[in-house]
Structure formats: C-alpha cells, structure tokens
Amino acid sequence: MLAEFRVSNFRSFENEQVFSMEAGKVRNNLSRVYTDGKFKLLKFMAIYGANASGKSNFLEAFAFAQEIIVTDIPKNAKNDFCRVDEKNAGVPSHFEFTIKVGNSKYVYGFFMLISKGTITREYLRQHKYGSTYKTVFSRDVVSGNYEVDTYFKEPTLNDRLKIYAEDVCQDGSVLFLRLMNQNKSGLYQSDSPINIYKDIYNWFKFKLSVNYPDRPVTSYSYLSDSDGVDKIGKLLHAFGTGISKFRIIDIPLEKVLADVPEDVVEEMSNALNEEKKYYEKSGISKIPSVVIRSLADNSMFFLNLKEDNITCQTLEMEHEQTSAMFSLAEESDGTVRLLDLIEVLLCRDTERVYIIDEINRRLHPLLTYNFVQQYLQLAEERNIQLIVTTHESKLMDFDLLRKDEIGFVNKDETGRSAYYSMDSFGERFDKKVCKSYFEGKYGAIPQFKL
C-alpha cells in the first residue's frame, strides 16, 4: 500500500510536493481506514483542480517513476523537468515512495537529471521506529560511493552485493533496484532476506496501476472465472446500463494478432509469462491476461495465458427486453468506460494501488458518485487503494468522503503547480464544501479573464 509520494522538478512541479495517504485526525468512516501498529492509511483520494492545473502531471510523475524502475529510462523525456526556470535543466529531479510491503514500511527513491537521462542518486531504507531508518542500500553515482553491505548479516551475501554495486557504482543509465531484478532469479530463494529487493520491485511492477482515459484500467483477468462473470453482470445491471447479461466468446488468436507487429506480440507474450510466474510465487489464483483495444471503435480483445497456451476472447451483451446480442463496439462509451473501471470493485489482489485520471470521463455524475460509493463500502473489507483525479463536484460531499480524502492541485501565475489537502483547511464535517470550492475558497478552480 502507498503511504506517501514525493516529487520535485517534474513538469509543472518545481518545489517538492508531498502527497500523503496517511489518515488525518478525522473521526468519521474509520472502518475504511487501514490501521495497524505502523500504518494508518486512507484507501481513497479524490484530487481536484482546474484544467491544466497539473493534475495529470501529478499522475504522470507516478507513471514516469514506475517506468524507470520497471522498464527503462524513457528516451523521449528529456524535457520533462520543470521548465518554468531554465536552470532546472541542471537540477536533479526527485521521486520518493513510502510504501507498505509485508508488515514493514520502506522508503525508496532516486534523483535523476532528466535533461541528461541519468540517475544521480538512489536509496532504499526500512523504517524502524519513530524517525529511525535502516539503509538497505544507497548509492551516489556522481561520487561512486555506495552502501549495500550493512543491512544483511550474511557475509557471503554482502560480498555478492558489493560485486553487483561495484559494477554500476558510477553507471547512471540504470537503477540498482532494477539491475537486481534482471536475470537474477537464482539469487532469490524462499525465506532469504535478500528477497526484499524482489518484493520492492514487484510492488512497483504488479501493485501500482496508473491509468488514463480511454485505456483499460486492468487486464480483465476477472473474466476468466464464472464467479467474476456473474458479479460483473450484476454490477452492469445495477449501474443502469440496460444490460441484462453478457457472455464471453472465444475468437481465433491469429485473427486478432494479424495486424499487430511481431515485437508487440513478443512483448505481450513475455508480459503474460512474467505475470504467471509472479502469481505462482505469490500464491495468487489469477489467470494472466492482457487487453488489446481498437483505436477505431470500442472493441476489445482479451489474451489469456492458460496452461502455457494463449487464448483470445471478447464480449457480447444482451439488453433488457431483447434477445439480440451486441458486441462491445456497439455499446455506449459510458458502458465501455464502466467496464474499464469495474475491476476496482472486483479486485482480489490485496494492497493493490489504482491511480485513475479523470474517473468521471464519459460517466453520468450520479453513476460516478455511485461507483465511488460502492468502492468505499468494499474498502471496509479490502485493503486496496484508489486515487483519482476528477472534476465531479458531486463527490465533494462530507456525507460521502472524509476531509482527508479530498486533495487539490493548483497552478499559480508563474506556471508552478502545488498539491495540498482539504484537511489543511480545518473545515467542519457538516460544511457544504462544494459551494465553497466553486466560490474559490480552496483554489484549484479556473480563473476566467474574459
């Protein structure tokens, strides 16, 4: 689960911004706050702001850092530093995550000179007590200094880590965390303490899901079992789509992949196999799946890995008062958007973090409200988190959300964005905050100059 995210010198964010999922002192709806001896975490956050305020940039910061950790340094991102001041081209950008992995809290972060595409510093620390941390590893690429041999007690293991670190002590082209998860499966044995390198990496790869409008939120793997199919049918009907039932049909794989480049097919195949290995090791009963969506219409195809064979499926819908079946391409944009989001309500992958840009896109305001309401009810039983950006004012309601579940992104006249929480305003729980928001009390609204 996510406790905190820090970012500086990225796009419209120049100074360090702190996004926290740590619960405040709010007393209502405590049943949906995750609490144990080390954590008191929110499971929902709605972020508001005017168009071009920086909301999407904030989500891009999550995705940018995740891509560097899991895949590689983007080659087309050399201008993603905060360009409101040309001096920022020479200032390292900072990305830091505080996360719950297992029963412990870890802080992982790195500094990167985006204009040059090079890592300058990197660190992983385990939170112990109060403000006390224990370094798992750290390195300063500029000086070549590193520390990898103080966290573990086994001398042989520490010697091996020092060899890995020495090889890349001044290599700014790759993160050490990523390097430790490339072609080193033999290093990670069951119950070995070094598995923390794998566990932290897997959090970014499999637990963090950053999503944008017009893209499926998930892999639709919940369609692979009859229980999931039954639940999604009931949800679609309950949300007033007019769909009475739907079915999954098999289609020839070669028909779907005929126009897909070979390298993309290979990439999808590798992703499915990696996902399968992760599920098997984690004891998760889930079929690996990826989605292909047509840019021309709403059609989608689901590629599933079952017993080492890739199969392909799609959906057909039946509406009330008719026996005719309709393809997904014939459904409304709102229905397809709801299908994109509905995995959040069916998620069985504990401690998964969903980040969704413009959750209300193509949805009626009441449908958006009801969707969030359904999620919050489920959040009382499930340890997952949902972070969304939105313009939907109906959600800004203390009957629905806690004060600390509402945040804002505001851009000043110089083009710099800042994030802050509703909790910082100390509003009464019975205040009509939507009215105050449109009156400009909290900022983060359009400024018209007609």
UniProtKB/TrEMBL annotation:
InterPro entries hit by this protein: ATPase_AAA_core, P-loop_NTPase
Gene Ontology molecular function: any one: ATP hydrolysis activity
Span of domain ATPase AAA-type core: 44-112, 271-397
Top-level division of the source organism's lineage: Bacteria
The protein's name in its UniProt record: ATP/GTP-binding protein
Source organism (scientific name): Acutalibacter muris
